[in-house]
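[Meeting: bench + compute handoff]

Bench side (C.D.) handed over the final construct sequence. Compute side (W.E.) agreed to return the predicted structure before the next meeting so the bench team could plan truncations. Sequence as handed over:
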Amino acid sequence: MTVDNRNELRSDIDFAALKSQMQTALGFPHFCIDNFLSEAFANEVHDAFPSYAEADKLGKAFAAVNEKRKIQITDSAQFPPAIRRLHEILASDEFVAKMSAMSGIPGLIADPLMLGGGIHETNDGGHLDVHVDFNFNAESGLYRRLNILVYFNKDWKEDYGGYLDLWDQDVSHCLGRFAPAFNRAAGFATSATSWHGVTPVKCPPGNMRKSFAAYYYTKEPPPGWDGVKRSTVFKARPDEYWKAHVAMPAENLLRATQSTVNSVKNTVKGLFGG
């Protein structure tokens, strides 16, 4: 898809410097770009975000132990015009080529299904536990390789939380944190060791954490891939003892039980034509 983004994407972004930033990043390749979009377009996107209640009617709500008080809208047909324009820019051939050159990952492809991407809104009390992303999209047959997250939160204070935090492969040491500051883009190469999460959101009424996510894939698996197709894997932070030893195991057991029940139901339907 070819898109003219000269009036929306900042024209002086130094992608060569960002490539160096990714190559020398602590832990795993990641980057941060402030003032990512032109100021006028960033404000237009900011103003286009639906309210949390409106988003709840359009998207998917999360209320699990690992991810809660979050709404996700992945259907681009539901995006307001300015946000649809942002989606088109991030999926354009020109921008994808820049992401490929910056990351050193050849042959990147914008996600045609927007699985997990799009509009993300997290309300007070929400969070996303530390995790590594799924590595294969069975619907498209593509391998997930790179994330970009663009934030639209004005006057976001430190005590509001909602920081993107990056962790070492044992999830024992935090490598760094990025505030979800207005018009900031952050991202990283996805792998079995790209542990990241969103710290608890504690914003006052009328506020919410707003972001737009785009993911990039390749047709071929990454170099050295072990052949294991992995879903999203969560781990507790070092100070989350109760979650690690009680909440997460309990939820995993509940999911396994539900999966078994569904499997039995499907088998019975197949046998008796229900």
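W.E. noted at the follow-up: DSSP finds six helices and 13 strands in the chain. C.D. will use this when planning the next construct.
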